[in-house]
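Objective 1b: paired records.
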Amino acid sequence: MTLLLETPRLLLRPQGPQDIEAIVAGLGDFEVTRFLTIVPFPYSRFHAEEWVARLRPPTLERAIFSIVLPATGEMIGMRESRGIRGLYTVTVDDAVRGARFDDAVCRATYAIDIHSGNPDANKGIANTGHKAKPFDIPLRALLPRDVTALLTAGRCISGDHFAHGSYRISGNASATGEAAGRTAGIAARSNRLPHEVKFGELRLPSLDG
């Protein structure tokens, strides 16, 4: 089975031997590995080859992907970058109290996982003092406050740094992506803006089973 997703600007494909040089270049940078507890430094080609050799054949349910720029062949990756200011901002308080929302598109269940921001004090996972419960991400967090014809999904939705440490994983990105896609489709077909679409029109499965 070939798992491949390609757009004019990006290529998503399973990681393999063709990525060894890029893996070494990325993880051989101390500015990257100083925040990672399980990655050795210096990181060598031997380590990359060992990693690739352990990868199991990719399936729809299980695969480790590379995101590649087709124009240059460069592999890219980012843990956290810019996010929007939405109609609602998901906060660490939402994560701690296990917030529920009437317009929930996703329920995040992952722990608050933030790498230490002070490598001199701690190379590993930062102890934030917060313990997350399963919490909802509302549709409003996908809608920018100051832009009307735009939807977001995944890591760039409206949330604070600590909440992002939980909802950033790929399963939540898929769920928010589906919600954003449905909202965009309904808005386009009905000649409305995304924020004018009612949550009930999305007909998403219940998060309570």
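Objective 1b, second protein:
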Amino acid sequence: MSHKFLSVILDQELQWREQANYALAKGTKYTLLMRHVSGNSWGTPMRLTRQLYQAVVVPRVTYAASVWLRPIYKPGNDKPQRGSIGVAKRLARIQRMAAITILGAMKTSPANTLDLHAFLPPTPILLQEKILHRSMARMAMLPKSHLLHPHIKWIETQCSPPQVRTPPPHTLTRHMPVGNGNDQPPPHETEHSPPNADTHSPDQGKRNRGIR
């Protein structure tokens, strides 16, 4: 039994399989539609086709990814761990189709070579570093007046994850501890100053504007 809420499919056990299948099906659909506007000797050029993939296909697939995707790598470990590895592999096939369309390459071309020539990041890095890490950075930079700030702080410092299935917020805060470590300044503003007040350093203001 499942329900759709804000274009995210919630199943009864929160395994997110239906949501992953739904998102990847949308990515396949839009990638195939890209072939209708590009070709080897006609259609949109490589730069615009690549921009179409990054601006349409990737956001469609990774919509609300911080809710249903799990980190693939642990900090300090280059080997894939238990997480959304299956989603990354299926997304890699979609990106391979998109890279063939962008470059007009042969269908037997290796996926790594296609990503390199099309200037596309590998799908594990795309999901881990760009999508999930950016989502966690935004949550870490929420002001104290935000409704989610006390919940994120509580999950990071006090709440222990359940033994059976770890929810995505617990997984993100433990795999990507950004903003509240001992070696980093707190990313959000103080209680008596607005986000862009003079109490921030110039570098901190640039990071805030860049992420938001």
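The two ends are 36 Å apart (CA to CA). The chain is about 50% helix and 5% strand.
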